[in-house]
């Protein structure tokens, strides 16, 4: 007689696996330098997470299988957040697109960008991901974190975000030779706009909500933006390119920026409870005694 798992039980198991794969993929990405991180091109090759340098095709394959088995699935907030974190981590650490840019489990974006070494003046390919592509995702990720933890933006985060915008501007000018009038203001435009009509729950909506704060915080954010924008404008007699090159070689260090963002992403990952399967692996489960944890490990086949 054919025995099938109860659909709800199967969904719980598959969700636990999905969350575990998101978590391990994020940890793998954040554990290696950008130059070494890459995404496995084939979904057919064996799982290879041992050295922390790959997001294996098996991760992508399972997401596709999950969608086929549970087409109406709506992920809990924690799983949705980890998916957001994985999406952004992939874009920032590898400059490759891994998943669809909306925080859903609808489809995996199959397009893979080739990994390139960057020189001082790289050749820009149409599908290459730049900081300007990732800036809205960084803000949406931050906003999602605030929603989950019912927190507000701090001065430390404001300076991190303004630094992100400053590096975005420098990359546009130095790498893409984009010197359009108004570019600086366009990149630093993010702030609360009470007049905007936005679909509730969209990325634009949660970002706008994130910037809605008390008068002191709003004024501080505008001051920090102005401070960074003023620093990016060249003094009389100096070209914009020369000014930005000097900044990147000094206070606007790319290495320091990458380190700060990586620390921020690691902090986001650790701010949430690890997935159940990860806790089972470690032998410590939130809310359970060591004895109960061992009993659960035996039932799940971990020992």
Tell me what you see in this structure.
With 303 residues, the chain is mainly α. 56% of the residues lie in helices and 1% in strands. It is built from twelve helices and two strands. It has helices spanning 7-30, 57-69, 77-94, 131-149, 155-174, 183-187, 203-210, 215-232, 240-249, 254-270, 276-282, 290-300, and strands at 38-39, 54-55. A two-stranded parallel sheet has the order 1-2. α3 runs antiparallel to α4 (131-149), α3 runs antiparallel to α10 (254-270) and α4 runs antiparallel to α5 (155-174). The longest helix has 24 residues, at 7-30. The protein is elongated, with a radius of gyration of 22 Å. The chain starts with 6 loop residues before the first helix and ends with a helix. The model is unreliable at 38-54 and 99-126 (pLDDT under 50).
Record the SSE blueprint.
Blueprint: H1 7-30, E1 38-39, E2 54-55, H2 57-69, H3 77-94, H4 131-149, H5 155-174, H6 183-187, H7 203-210, H8 215-232, H9 240-249, H10 254-270, H11 276-282, H12 290-300
Helix pairs in contact: 1-2, 1-3, 1-10, 3-4, 3-10, 4-5, 4-7, 5-8, 5-9, 5-10
